[in-house]
């Protein structure tokens, strides 16, 4: 987790975390060259797996240029040209987190080119949906765009950061849905549990936001505790925090725990 | 699933505190100088949703704060999000 200290790996290990998958995402600032991404992809595929392994955690990752830096198509394509050099690394599961940030035509073009890379290599896809006021429109744009890919296996696509106003459309279209837990500003553990109670536990998982903002790698274990307080059974909790992620991620032959 | 009484035991004090926070936020805005922008209008328009008799208030509030436009700009004027459609 490039944005976190080593202490966070220790906390996750103490909480029983066996594996984590880290999307390629924004660094908290815009990188000035494709070389910056080359170094970042090395960090994701070489250094972070070693840092996680010190605590017995298997580290997997996704590769792409994130939507926030994908608004310049020329620059984005320079970065995407690096992906084939890293795609065979043993911890790379697929393409992600691709998607939209401000719902622009440029972002959408780059999103679709990423989807094509995933299809060309038969890889799972992790999709970021925009935050706050842009989420509903962006999610619908993404769903419309994905529908144009006739060969796409929807069971190999997870659309992340769903909330109450987007989860049904994602699940109804046959995709996996991810709920990203934040201590403030977005989906909280309490609301994620509400979504599970309303929409069920099929093709859905939750993940901890571990980014440069206020976020908490322990959000998933804390949500599991909250599920116990709300009388969800051990089997229901196991399905959400372990079985479902394992089922989705195991579609990559590199994912083994 | 918990019964209503159990859920109130578990979460009422927290929800009460959050409601008071909202009231204090509005008081604070009134007390300070300057002019509020369109975000406050969205905020106030969302509040009555809480009292509606419907099972999806959270979804309705999120939709209230969502951009419902259909145009696609070529590039983004800025990177972040403000929480309400300000353009």
Strand order of the largest sheet of chain A: 1-2-3-4-5-6-7
Specify the structural class of chain A: alpha/beta
The N- to C-terminal Cα distance of chain B equals 42 Å
Largest sheet of chain A: 7 strands, parallel
Which CATH class of chain A? Alpha Beta
The outline of chain B comes out as extended
Number of strands of chain B: 0
Strand content of chain B: under 5%
Secondary structure: number of strands of chain A = 7
**C-alpha termini separation of chain A:** 18 Å
Tell me what you see in this structure.
The complex is a heterodimer of chains A (257) and B (87). Chain A has a single domain, classed as TIM Barrel, CATH 3.20.20.140. In chain A, α2 packs across α3, α3 packs parallel to α5 and α8 crosses α9. The longest helix of chain A is centred in the N-terminal third of the chain and has 20 residues. Chain A is built from ten helices and seven strands. In chain A, α7 links the parallel β5 and β6. Chain A has a seven-stranded parallel sheet with strand order 1-2-3-4-5-6-7. Chain A is of the alpha/beta class. The mean pLDDT of chain A is 97. Chain A is globular and about 50 Å long. Chain B is mostly helical and 87 residues long. Chain B folds into two domains: 34 residues; 32 residues. Helix content of chain B is 52%, strand content 0%. Chain B is built from three helices and no strands. The longest helix of chain B is centred in the N-terminal third of the chain and has 28 residues. The termini of chain B are far apart. The mean pLDDT of chain B is 96. Chains A and B meet through α5, α6 and α8 of A and α1 and α3 of B.
